[in-house]
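User: Hello! I'm new to structural biology and keep hearing that structure can be predicted from sequence alone. Could you demonstrate with Protein-methionine-sulfoxide reductase catalytic subunit MsrP? Please show me the input and the output so I can see what each looks like.

Assistant: Of course. The first part below is the input, the amino acid sequence of Protein-methionine-sulfoxide reductase catalytic subunit MsrP. The second part is the output, the predicted structure written as tokens.
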Amino acid sequence: MLIKTRKSGDVRSSEITSESVYQDRRRFLRMGGQFAFAGMGLALAGCSDAADPQSAKKMASSGSGDVPQLSAPDWLQQKVASSKPSRFTTDEALTPYANVTGYNNFYEFGYSKDDPAKNAKNMKTDPWSVVVEGEVEKPGKYTLEDMLKPHDVEDRIYRLRCVEAWSMVIPWVGISLADMLKRFQPTSKAKYVQFETLYAPEQMPGQRSSFSAIEYPYVEGLRIDEAMNPLTFMAIGVYGKTLPPQNGAPLRLIVPWKYGFKSIKSIVKIRFTETMPRTTWVKSGPSEYGFYANVNPEVDHPRWSQKKERRLPNSIWEPNQIETQKFNGYGEEVAHLYKGMDLRKFY
Ligand SMILES: Nc1nc2c(c(=O)[nH]1)N[C@H]1C(S)=C(S)[C@@H](COP(=O)(O)O)O[C@H]1N2
Ligand SMILES: [Mo]
């Protein structure tokens, strides 16, 4: 059902590394839009071959895959451990755990790809609660346990395509977002759903910085039909174990057909609204980052091409550039949501 192509596209020497694209994204924001091109970082150095996707869970539970059990309450560990395979999978090679948990974007913990793993170590994720508010019959402050209790947990292997033109294949554990949201009974006025990340400057150095590229708390949003699409997922684990803080513990969104920045981490608030939420990246650079942010090789970022992506793990000897697929390869499931919309205008 899911499209499973794996092409090794040829790399043009003119192509800048996506690491430099990332540096550029950050510099651009800091400088208020002025383009500055300075030293480039190297792409992540090579890693071992990725594992067979079908063995993700085996690997995770055998321990041979270096998947540690992080400190999380027992009930949550058990919940994650109870996950069952789902129809959402791919036969592409999994990105190794070390890359998934060591190469991150979580600006609250710093801008370098290795900052979140270093700086989020002591993030407090228990107790955790989520405020549900806005256009909904059952608003309230729910403990994480209440949020998760009625739901079965499933494994889903999804591609993650960052707007910076790198990508991974990640085995998540979690719950269909639609199933979770329906319980709160959105009203007929609920046209959008907004999500907010924890705001805790005492724990999150990025939120204390006076040079911040983005506003906090981090806010993302979806149209209600996007939120209710079967692909949209709330993750509580990865590689068969609870989420490490750098990946958005204890609860983070996964929207696999959109650029990674829509997949907001460490969620503390869900708000149903009648109007389109003002989201973090749209506020920071509206000409560069749209509300929809659907993966689309036909619509370039104003400062770089979106035609290809660097699939991790890669190395300078094996850049692993592959073609980017429209809707990140999930068009069959989601293209209908955008029928009649000009995707150049609604980027
Ligand atoms: N709160 C918050 N959520 C966030 C981000 C962030 O900086 N802060 N970065 C986003 C971006 S740009 C990407 S690509 C993904 C990366 O998720 P991963 O580190 O789990 O691979 O998280 C997204 N969610
Ligand atoms: Mo991203």
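User: So the tokens describe the shape?

Assistant: Right, they're a compact way of writing down the 3D structure. Reading them back into a model, for example: Residues 105, 162-164, 260-261 surround molybdenum atom (ligand 2) (CB under 6 Å).
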